[in-house]
Amino acid sequence: MRLHALLTVGLGCALLFAPLGCGDDGDDGGTTPVTQGTVRFLHLANGISSALDVYRRADLLSSPTTATPLATDLTFGQLSPAVSVNSGSSTFVAYFANAQPTGTPVFEAIAQTVTANQTSITTFYTNDDGQTDTRTFVDQREPPEPGEGRFRVVHLAANFDTSVVLFDASDNRNPQALTGNISFGNLASSDLDLPVGPVVLGIGRTNQVQRVFSFNVVQGSYFAFLVSDGAVDSLYLLDQAGNLLTPIDATNFVPPGQGQVNVVHLADGADALDIYFGQTESPAVGPLPENTAAVRQTLVEGTYNVLVVPASGDPAVDAIATLENFQLDPNETVTLVVYDDPTGEVVIEALPPENVSPPMPGEVRYRIVHLGPELGTIHVLNATDPTNPAVIDPSFDGLDFGDVSSYVVRPAVNRIVLGLDADDDPRDDLEVTFDIPNYPALSVLNIFLDTNTGASGTTFEAVAVSVAGSGAASSVFAGVTIPDPSFVRPIHLVSAFGSGIDQTVDFYVSGNPLDTRTFLSS
Question: 75, 186, 339, 362 - which has most CB atoms within 10 Å?
């Protein structure tokens, strides 16, 4: 990993970014330049929840009712298409989408410099005072050396308001600083070159890594925007083709000698639970409602007796399940699941350690956990086309209760539609399907196939738990039961005819006559 010095493209406002207020405002009567540049708008202001339309103020002044917005329906995390404008200094104003662009705008980006024959990226973000601020950057990037990715880093993460340092945190025992201090709202003084492949990029202050971004570097040149949205810190990458990639969410830095634990509550009928790692004064997790997950709890390596206790209960006397001698190794991530065994008893078990290394861009990784005792042995198939289910992976074939499959990697653009074919059913087709919407790229999932038995019968559920990436921590998807097409329901005829009268009855299925039968009433 190494730094590559930036090249400036001029003086003052012709630097790689234009601070607010520099240069002449060409909207206020300045000479119209004969050259043009293109501009794009990047919405990273988490304090604005509504979509925005962005105009050039000069266009509104000259044509207040017919001015065309330069960007429309722009929401947080989106980048607008490029549009051509006169080069020089322009002021851009934002109004709520589809509203009349009159009166006080949501915010103004005053005197932003658009560079001739270049693409400028006007970025609005929430500053450390909670106000919307703006910077414009010229998208002028040099290609990296072979086998590297080059990153032009912009610090807009309000959770690190003063300045940040980036680290190589692949060895958590000895993180190495890769940059000097990058002040809030500004561009790093040098490009950051990283080798192609998996990387753990730490973010923090001098000599202290606080959070990390884990991802795979692909060769190319990128803008890298560090952004905070509430408690979430994310890395937004703009690739050399002008595409804004799926954001990479930071996770807490795990110091040496520590590991991480996820806890999933799938026990039917059990109310919210507290989870204790040893006889401690307070639970490490809880209260945890059913069908929810608590992910990435950091613990010191070692051996624990894990206690499952009803919320607010006493772990010394109220534990309903115990996992004894649970071993957590350093740098390991393990998922613990609380569920009902076939006898209805609540138990807690540890799954095989997670593979939380980042998938490649555009991909997700998931595995199947069979926790539906009523299902018996199952074959899990791709049911995107339920009339022609396809094999996903050999490890998904013949899963018994309690089994955990291998991981598979799939494109993030596809929905996950799973179908189950049970061995104890004579049919060789699907009995249940689960439609799981797209998860964001870079997600790592456990998908638990579960059953709930109540007064109305047995229902089927898929509970997707995201243990890495930016997907929801846990989501429940109801199974859809597919009726057996070979099954014919018997018809019970109750006499409603007069005694001794022959009756002729026509039978129809979906409007088509089947046959005519004559019955003798009794």
Answer: 339
